[in-house]
Amino acid sequence: MAKNVLYFFVASFISFILLIAGLLIWVSRIPTKDPSDADGKGFAIVYGFMAAVPTSIIIGLIVTIGAYAYRKYKETG
After folding, report:
1. How far is residue 51's CA from residue 46's CA, in Å, rounded to a whole number?
2. What are the φ/ψ torsions at residue 33 (nearest 5 degrees)?
3. What residue ranges are annotated as transmembrane (predicted)?
């Protein structure tokens, strides 16, 4: 059980960091010439953070279920 929780947290954390890093790199490459562009960047970052949380949780669940199924498959031979 502890391995499953560890797999979940590690996979969720890594996927969250990768999603946020990609979002920040993408937003930083958008040129800002107008204050409304900066406002749009702010919305992109906020909504990106909001989308990254459930996405990383789903990825963590998929990895955890896959690891559990693989361990059970190996045990049964």
Report:
1. 9
2. -115, -15
3. 5-27, 47-70
Tell me the whole-structure pTM to 2 decimals. 0.82
- Domain edges within the chain: 2-70
Which two structure tokens, joined as six digits, stand for 67? 């690891």
pLDDT one-digit tens code per residue, 28-54 = 998 888 888 888 888 999 999 999 999
How does 6-22 read in b/e, with b if 16+ C-beta sit within 10 Å? ebbeebbeebbeebbee
* Cα angle: 21, vertex 46, 62; to 5 degrees: 60
User: From CA 54, how far away is CA 6, in angstroms rounded?
Assistant: 18
Neighbours of 23 (CB within 10 A): 17
